[in-house]
Write a structure and sequence with these properties.
By secondary structure, this protein is of the alpha+beta class. It has a single domain, classed as YhbY-like (Translation Initiation Factor IF3, 2-Layer Sandwich). The protein contains three helices and four strands. The protein has a four-stranded mixed β-sheet, with helices on both faces. The two termini are about 15 Å apart.
Length: about 100
Amino acid sequence: MAVNDKQKRYLKGLAHPLKPVVMIGNKGLTENVLAEIDKALEQHELIKVRVSGLEKEDRAAMVDEITLKSSANLIVIIGHIAVLYRPAKEPTIQLPKK
């Protein structure tokens, strides 16, 4: 499901008070980290992921890989934090209409 600009703004507002639930460190993106991201998206729909220890381009590439492998939507990247959204089977977040 693609998210439009109005929905991204809404989700950014919801994500503002959240703390990162997954932190990626020196070992990088492993299968266990991907499993944790998948589990967090199933439970929360909207999560923050902290990617530490990489240059800006490498962080962006890693976040792209995460969104591709987890079928999530990238809402925003600010510094080392990426906000991801994936609707659950029974969504709790009601997105505004287009």
